[in-house]
Design goal:
The protein has helices at about 20-30, 45-60, 75-80, 95-100, 115-120, 145-155, 170-175, 195-205; strands at about 5-10, 35-40, 65-70, 85, 105-110, 125-130, 160-165, 180-185. With about 210 residues, it is of the alpha/beta class. Bound molecules: the ligand Cc1ncc(COP(=O)(O)OP(=O)(O)O)c(N)n1, the ligand Cc1nc(C(=O)O)sc1CCOP(=O)(O)O and magnesium ion. Condenses 4-methyl-5-(beta-hydroxyethyl)thiazole monophosphate (THZ-P) and 2-methyl-4-amino-5-hydroxymethyl pyrimidine pyrophosphate (HMP-PP) to form thiamine monophosphate (TMP).
Length: about 210
C-alpha cells in the first residue's frame, strides 16, 4: 500500500459549496500529506459521482496526491482512484477488498475497538474513526466518541487511525497524543475563507 497522507480532505457537495475550488486552493501547498476522498450525497447519480471523481483524480495526479472514493467502489475503479472508503451501509470490508484488489487503499469506518479489529482483519488499510465531536455536516450520526473513543480504537489496531467529525486544527495535538495518525475533515476546509491557510495549519499540526 502507498504511504498514507495524514490530512484527508472530504469533498463537500452540499449546495453552495465548491469542492473543486477548495481542492485547487489546497493542492499546491499540501504535498504528500494530503488524501482526497470524493464523497457525494446519497442522492447523486453514479454519473455525477464519476464525473466529480474524474476531475478530482485529474487535479490530484500532478501532485501525486492520493484520491479515494467513498462508498461507490465501481466509481473508484472507473475513475482511476487509488482506493475507497466503506462504512456500515456499504459493501463489507472483505468484499470491498476483493473488488478493489490487494494493492488498493481501503478505508473502513469504525466507532469502537471490536469492529475496528474486525475491519482490519477483513482487509482495511486504515480506519476512519468518529464522530470525534458533534458535527452539522452529516445527519444521523451516533453520539460523539470524543478523544477517549479515538484512543480506544487506536490502541486496538495497528493500521492508521483517521479521526473524523467536527475536527479542527486545534484538536490535532490531543488526537495525535491519543494515537490518531491523521484527521479527515469537511468543514475545516470547506466554507472557510482561506482553505490553503487552513490546510497549512492542519498539516503543520499533523507533522510537527
Ligand atoms: C475517513 C472517513 N471516516 C469515516 C467516514 C464515514 O463513512 P460511512 O460511515 O460509510 O458514512 P458516509 O461517509 O458514507 O456517509 C468517511 N467517509 N471517511
Ligand atoms: C462524513 C462524516 N462521517 C462521519 C462519521 O463519524 O462517520 S463524520 C462526517 C462528517 C465530517 O465533516 P466535518 O469535518 O465537517 O465534521
Ligand atoms: Mg459510506
Amino acid at each position: 500500500m502507498p504511504s498514507l497522507g495524514r490530512l484527508h480532505l472530504i469533498t463537500d457537495t452540499r449546495p453552495g459549496r465548491d469542492s473543486l475550488a477548495v481542492l485547487r486552493a489546497v493542492l499546491p501547498m499540501a504535498g504528500g500529506e494530503l488524501v482526497v476522498q470524493v464523497r457525494v450525497e446519497d442522492t447523486a447519480t453514479d454519473r455525477e459521482a464519476y464525473d466529480l471523481a474524474r476531475r478530482v483524480v485529474a487535479l490530484c495526479t500532478p501532485y501525486a496526491v492520493t484520491c479515494l472514493v467513498n462508498d461507490r467502489l465501481h466509481v473508484a475503479l472507473a475513475a482511476g482512484a487509488v482506493g475507497g472508503h466503506v462504512g456500515a451501509d456499504d459493501l463489507p470490508v472483505e468484499a470491498a477488498r476483493r473488488v478493489l484488489g490487494p494493492a488498493a487503499v481501503l478505508g473502513a469506518t469504525a466507532r469502537e475497538p471490536g469492529s475496528a479489529a474486525e475491519a482490519v482483519t477483513a482487509g482495511a488499510s486504515y480506519l476512519g474513526v468518529g464522530p470525534c465531536h458533534a458535527t452539522t455536516t452529516k445527519d444521523g450520526l451516533p453520539p460523539a466518541i470524543g478523544v477517549p473513543g479515538i484512543r480506544a480504537v487506536a490502541e486496538a489496531v495497528a493500521v492508521p487511525v483517521i479521526a473524523i467529525g467536527g475536527v479542527t486544527a486545534a484538536d490535532v495535538p490531543e488526537l495525535r497524543a491519543a494515537g490518531a495518525y491523521g484527521v479527515a475533515v469537511v468543514g475545516a476546509l470547506s466554507g472557510v475563507a482561506d482553505p490553503a491557510r487552513a490546510a497549512a495549519e492542519l498539516i503543520g499540526a499533523l507533522t510537527c
